[in-house]
Amino acid sequence: MKINVRMKSEFLYDLLLFHTYSKFSGFLINVLGLSVMITGGILLGMDKIEVPQAVMYAAAGMLFLSYTPFTLKMRARKMMMAPCYQQEISYVFHEQGISERILERENSYSWSQVEKAISTPKDIAFYVGKEEALILPKESFGEFFIPVMKLIAENVTRDKIYIR
Length: 164
Prior knowledge:
By secondary structure, the chain is an alpha+beta fold. The protein starts with a strand and ends with a strand. It folds into 2 domains: 2-6 and 82-162, PH-domain like (Roll), CATH 2.30.29; 9-79. The protein is built from 5 helices and 8 strands; from the N terminus they run βαααββββββααβ.
């Protein structure tokens, strides 16, 4: 089954968001932002601060909440400038594993090399090394989505699959 991918920054952004907010530190950033806003509201309600100060609390909370998504969006745009994302990438799924053709170079990965397979709202990613992931937008699968998912289920152990 051959799948051709034309990468877009929105797909990279989706994966970066997943990684950031699936970790405890991502959760803490959200708690911090909401805590600042709630604190401002409580202090305003108790007449400890005036409305302009409460607005500053709300602005600070919004800054905490929006900083991470903004920086990740910029990072995804920067990643898109890499030569490997400037042209179409072809992936072939077969009984032995996954083959990737990118920039006139072909890489093959056996199913045993797949350390983890995850899904995000827009992507399926296969981790095949410490810092290497094969990122496939779900929309690229077309009619091959179900057959590829069956192939993954047959060849990758359950503890490595995080696809819903």
